[in-house]
Amino acid sequence: MKINCNFDRNKKLWIQVGTLDNIIKILSQGMPATISDLLSFLSIPETKSRHLRIMMRLLSCIGIFKSNVTPSGVEAFGLAPVSQHLTTSFPHSPCSSPFVLFLLDHHLVDPCHQLSYWFRRSDMSTTPFEMAHGKTFWDFTGAQPEFNDLFNKGMACDSIFVMDVLKHVGREAFKGIGTLVDVGGGTGLTAAALAKEFPGLKCTVFYLPHVVNSAKKIDGIQYVGGDMFLELPPADVVLLKWILHDWSDEDCVRILQRCKEAIPPKEKGGKVIVIDMVVGVGSNTQTSMETQLLFDLEMMILVAGKERDENEWHELFVAAGFSDYKITSSIGLRSIIEVYP
Ligand SMILES: C[S@@+](CC[C@H](N)C(=O)[O-])C[C@H]1O[C@@H](n2cnc3c(N)ncnc32)[C@H](O)[C@@H]1O
Known about the structure:
The protein is of the alpha/beta class.
């Protein structure tokens, strides 16, 4: 997750480059690219040569790219371990480019500029995102198909990343489950990956209708539209991946209560699986702690949610009527929490 942190810190640079995808595409061809190669591939006028070099040198200095001097004495740039995660050319590392592009989209950056006004307001019901765009995050995704698409692609990319990690860590939590409903499961990639990994597992995606209606549905996955605050389809297990951090404590308790109503008792295999951060778990370096805190800030700005430490999770589970929970493993900076009725 060091990558996320670096990207966050350098948000403005990425935005100004604006051609991130194209630079990555060129550099992922394997050969180091000189400034002159980049100018020609990116259709940037020669007069901007020095300026592009300023950007590329800085991005190399902070570890996003690598710079070398070729045998003929010309400076050339290549991918560094961080930027290798932004290309599909490295089959063993899922491409995070759609997730990064979503995080750096101006709709997510603009609300940061509202923070000083927001802090002076006593009203707690309006987020900086709403101040910038006049709508809550979820209403905005409903109203703006392009933004919705960017969001879905970012989330889908994260699902591929998490499901890839789950093949190695945290599999136990999903073993032996008959039916699972992935609440707020977006376009269904997580459910599809689980169904593939655990043959016999029947997966349902419960989604907010406007999020998925326009997206392609995946064969073999059942889709049920609705509002998770009202009622959920019954299943042995409810999965909440990156859901609860979007909501206040009161809202989380309501969502968890709906989950509890949808599952059988613990003895019959009922449980909720939460995939989210547990602040302090998996964050044993300065960079990883910083990343968890940045996500906490991002949730505050976008959706009035938050990242929680173990005590805060414990309080939510008790308030929603659950009896026990187990933090089994961590996926980078996120954990799998099995919560029992
Ligand atoms: C941060 S995304 C996580 C998506 C997916 N679980 C993942 O990890 O890729 C939160 C999801 O919650 C969904 N959502 C928001 N409000 C909802 C509601 N009231 N009922 C059902 N889903 C909702 C959103 O549409 C979105 O897909």
